[in-house]
Amino acid sequence: MKKQHVIVLGATYQPFQPTAELEESLPVIEPPKNFVDPEKKANHVRGKTEKRNEELAEVWPLKKFASLRVCYYEPGKEPLVVAVDDVDPATDFVTLLAPICDALERIDDFKENVLFVGVGVRDILRLLRSRHGVDGLIPYQKIADQRDVIDPIGMLNTGEVAKNLDVLYVLRDFGIEMPGDYVPGKSSVEDCNVAIRSYNTLCRGRSQPKLAL
Description:
The chain is of the alpha/beta class. It has helices at 20-25, 38-56, 93-96, 98-109, 121-130, 140-145, 159-164, 167-173, 188-203, and strands at residues 4-13, 65-73, 80-84, 113-117, 149-150.
């Protein structure tokens, strides 16, 4: 049987700040023509702007890392963890992740299996590859095809489910532990812990060992 290698990723993002160039490219938000009161007009524009910025903050090309955590699990060995709590423009992810990228090259040579797991994991992988040039970590075709990439929140948070069901309730109902105040995307450590517990409970094969936190 081929070895099952697992990469767990978690990230948080810097607060979204639209640039002048981005704002120029967006439609102007205007109050309805039947609004007369200046304060009511201003509140309408402010609310619509805040809502749009919240939506833009979730568009992956506009995201920038605030923190990043990457955990590599090779069967039979202690996990290799790369953690950056405060990402800045000088952070060199290519160098930091080189040991994991090197390991993945060896895995590919032996045609072994790799699974990428994490809350919002596809966005993390895309940003590492496109914004930071970490090509050796990213099997981009797998991201596009949604093969060997598991997001425990995203796999449930789709279609009608997203409108009617709290995904965190579903995970807790399966016995997956998380802090009572847990919110995805607020802590790279907690996101990784939720991803690891979700993998152990929902995703691993019977013959595969549990991942350690």
